[in-house]
Design brief:
- This protein is an all-alpha fold.
- It has four helices and no strands.
- The protein has one domain.
- It is about 70% helix and about 0% strand.
- Helix 3 packs antiparallel against helix 4.
- The longest helix has 17 residues.
- The protein is globular, with a radius of gyration of 11 Å.
- The model has no long low-confidence stretch (mean pLDDT about 90).
Length: about 70
């Protein structure tokens, strides 16, 4: 997976989580990885070490989006 700042993942998804997550094409363009990999990586981050920049509510909502998107991609 390409090296990227986790803040970039969080900032991107912060703009999109209320809409069910970022569009797969935008994720591919911005991060160079498939949406599944993006949501897996973001979900792992949110489960293990959510950034202090997120409220608990935002982190929970984003994690739900990650889980749903991964479930939909199965």
């Amino acid at each position: 997976m390409p090296e990227m700042d986790t803040a970039d993942l969080v900032d991107f998804e912060r703009r999109w989580y209320r809409h069910g997550g970022g569009p797969a094409d935008d994720i591919e363009t911005e991060f160079g990885l498939p949406a599944t990999a993006f949501f897996r990586r973001l979900g792992d981050l949110l489960e293990t070490d959510p950034p202090d920049t997120l409220t608990r509510s935002e982190a929970s909502a984003m994690l739900r989006v990650c889980r749903r998107r991964l479930w939909l991609d199965e």
